[in-house]
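Sample intake sheet
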Amino acid sequence: MKTRSIETVSNSRLVSLATAIIAVLAALGTLFAHHRSIAALSSKNQAILMQARASDTYNAYEAKQIRFNIYRALLATGLVNSAETRGRLESAAESESASMPAVLEKAKALEREAEKDDVQSETILKSYETLQFATTAFEISIVLVSISALAGARLFLPLGCALSAFGVALLITGLIQNG
């Protein structure tokens, strides 16, 4: 009878220890998932800001093209007879033409940066989702191990531990997915 009692106490301690370890893993999974969530949102915001800057820079490029074409059209009409005014219009047209390639290149660079930030946010979001799955596995494991303790059903303890091992694999995968 004492052997059974010692076995029950030992089993109870094992279940308690397993539950505590799984609860800590669930808490860590939640912590890491929340950090990934914030990082994904931050990265997505950065991508949106870069895209807005790229759009503004493309608009500036198009405005330069329009001004250049207006100056050239005005000069082509022959309406401007004053040599001084013609010279200023030609100078303004040349200035717009000369600055256009740099503005276009800046817009393209900003667009590439926006795409890079968007890809990064998607990678972080996938990491977040994997960490959420890991946390869910840990939470289900806690329930299974608790049922094992309450109902004395020995099947639930190894099942909960196996699900926790799967959760650990997901946790590690989620942490290295960050890119």
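Comment: The mean pLDDT is 89. Helices lie at 2-77, 83-151, 156-176.
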